[in-house]
Amino acid sequence: MTAERTIAVWQDRVRMRVLSEGSGPALLFFHGPWGLAWDPFLAALARDFTVIAPEHPGTTPGAPDDIYHVESLWDLVLCYDELLDALGREDAVFVGHSFGAMVAAEVAAAVPRRARRLALIDPLGFWRDSDPITNWMAMDLPEQRRRLFRDPDGEAARRLFGEGEDDATARLRIMWALGAAGKFLWPIPDKGLKKRIHRIKAPTLLVWGKDDQIVPPVYADEFARRLSGARLEVVSGAGHAPQMEQPDAVARLVREFAKA
What we know:
Helix 2 (73-87) packs across helix 3 (99-110). 36% of the residues lie in helices and 19% in strands. The chain has one domain (3-259): Alpha/Beta hydrolase fold, catalytic domain (Rossmann fold, 3-Layer(aba) Sandwich), CATH 3.40.50.1820. With 260 residues, the protein is of the alpha/beta class. The protein has helices spanning 40-45, 73-87, 99-110, 141-148, 155-161, 168-182, 193-196, 218-226, 242-245, 247-259, and strands at residues 3-9, 14-21, 26-30, 50-54, 92-97, 115-121, 204-209, 231-235. The chain has an 8-stranded mixed beta sheet, sandwiched between helices.
């Protein structure tokens, strides 16, 4: 059964709801900009790990304004550092998706001892003028859905966006989550990670959806080049969210990597 608790960090001004399930080594999941949902990918990992999935500041129900207390990316990194202290976890396997993967990498660079192993799924964090990342923030939700998933009508897309594109609850939840993440991504998702990434000491796995229409695959090579010894796995039948479209395959990759 998935447990939940809300933890206050940043001088008790930022409340973060944390979902958890499973037993075994700690695995901290950093969700993407569309918000957190306990899905088949996390459920699969919970068979072997204690999966800890915090909600990004501002996306915890009842605490939307908390995001205004997190003024910079550095503030955000320290919020997660404080969260680990509050959870009593000295370190954990870090797994992040998209924006969450960028944050996971930043935490691993700022406080290297925190990340025992690091799995980055279609991460943001770099920018090339010749290969721009798709600005999904300027798109309506139906277009985002088409860009995010290889199959925008598939089960993963329905789970995230609701059964219909007019699902008001899903639309409001996603739009606010995008705004909370956009504070740290706009105007381009490059906040200087390239200056700090050398500090990451954890063995790293890169997972990329073969049909990613948001972050061009050239960025997989960029991350692999900057992370010494990183392993890259490309997942077929998936776009920017392979852990949603191919949960069993990606969970298997993460599980084998994290247990090595």
